[in-house]
Amino acid sequence: MIQAADFAKALELTELSPSTRKEWDIRTADLNRPGMQFCGFYEYFAFERPQVIGKVEMTYLENLEPKARRAMLKKYFSFDIPCVIICRGMRAPEDLLKAAAARDIAVYQTDMVTTKLTFTAINYLNRCLAPRVTRHGVLVSVDGIGVLLTGESGVGKSEAALELIRRGHQLVADDVVDICRVSDTRLVGECPEMVRHFMEIRGIGIIDIRTMYGVSAVAQSRSIDLVMNMEQWVSGKAYDRLGLHEEYTTILGVKVPSQTLPVRPGRNLAIIIEVAARNLSLKRLGYSAAKELDKRMQEMIMKRSQQDK
Predict the structure, then answer these.
(1) 74: which of 23, 132, 181, 298 is 20 to 30 A away, CA to CA?
(2) How far apart are CA 292 and CA 298, in angstroms?
(3) What CA–CA distance (Å, rounded) separates 149 from 194?
(4) CB 84 within 8 A of CB 57
(5) What is the pLDDT of residues 216-252, one digit of tens each?
(6) C-alpha R_g of the chain
(7) How many CB atoms lie within 10 A of CB 126?
(8) Residue 183: its pLDDT value, please?
């Protein structure tokens, strides 16, 4: 369900005709321009979407005879429309406002051009309708790379994040991370508003990162680009030492690169996490240190085998 007040606030809409409906049952992040419906074609009418009236639709309305316009609007508003948005700051015809009020349908106005309004509204609806899940962990932004730290309680996630903040990086969420899938390949994490900017440090208690380190030390949301699972060092366990094989964690159907970070006294976890984030940036640019080393070794082996012949 989409909250009407939040929708109007986010898009900075002016209410021309109020409605008693506080929420809309919108299932898709898309809009409808009712040009075909104004011409009488209702075989396919996406009435469940917000309706956007641009310059073309408004010009057609204004050129109709008053009686024909009233009849057309009566049929148009007979559908269960969430709302109507008039773009470019255009004045709404009185017939339209009366027809909307009779059906308790909100009419809004915006100064934005139709294309910009459509783009902004679809982005907002995508965010609201995106699948969501809550995960236990810490989300930090390291040089613009969103790193989700996971692991058992007490393993040192918050302490590692605190050291990253001291090194100039940003905290997004501590302990509770709300994750939404904004596209088929992208996840965005944020912190619940109640605990935003707060962090729990065992032995000290709750601290306010924004107050302590400034507004530059926090971020409201960040894409999740890397998952680092922190676990206590297990003697004898074979940890990845080369990085030739990519590992992934699936969240909400999206595969995210992941790594296991063994924790033991003496390891500077913040620096390791920082290096992992920068290494991921290099991989995205097409450079892999592990593959480069493997390539050199293969070339050396081939060279020596040729010399032995």
Answers:
(1) 23
(2) 10
(3) 20
(4) no
(5) 999 999 999 999 999 988 887 877 777 778 889 999 9
(6) 27
(7) 16
(8) 83
Contacts of 24 (CB under 8 A, 6+ apart): 1, 2, 4, 7, 50, 82, 83
Query: What's the CATH code, domain 2-128?
Result: 3.40.1390.20
Q: Which fold has domain 131-289?
A: Rossmann fold (3.40.50)
Query: 257 Cβ partners below 8 Å, 6+ apart?
Result: 225, 226, 227, 246, 247, 248, 280
Active site residues: 136, 157, 175, 241
Q: Tokens for 69?
A: 């316009």
Mean pLDDT in the chain? 91
User: How is the chain classified by DSSP, letter by letter?
Assistant: -EEHHHHHHHTTPEEEE--S--EE---SS--B-THHHHTT--SS--TTSPEEE-HHHHHHHHTS-HHHHHHHHHHHTTS---EEEE-TTPPPPHHHHHHHHHTT-EEEE-SS-HHHHHHHHHHHHHHHHS-EEEEEEEEEEETTEEEEEEESTTSSHHHHHHHHHHTT-EEEEEEEEEEEEEETTEEEEE--GGGTTEEEETTTEEEEHHHHH-GGGB-SEEE--EEEEEEE--TT----SS--S-EEEEETTEEEEEEEEEE-TT--HHHHHHHHHHHHHHHHTT--HHHHHHHHHHHHHHHHHHHH-
* Average pLDDT rounded to a whole number, residues 26-46: 91
The pTM (predicted TM-score) of the whole model is 0.73
Domain residue ranges in the chain:
2-128, 131-289
pLDDT one-digit tens code per residue, 126-174: 888 888 999 999 999 999 999 999 999 888 899 999 999 999 999 999 9
For residue 309, the model assigns a pLDDT of 64
Fold match flag (2-128 vs 131-289): no
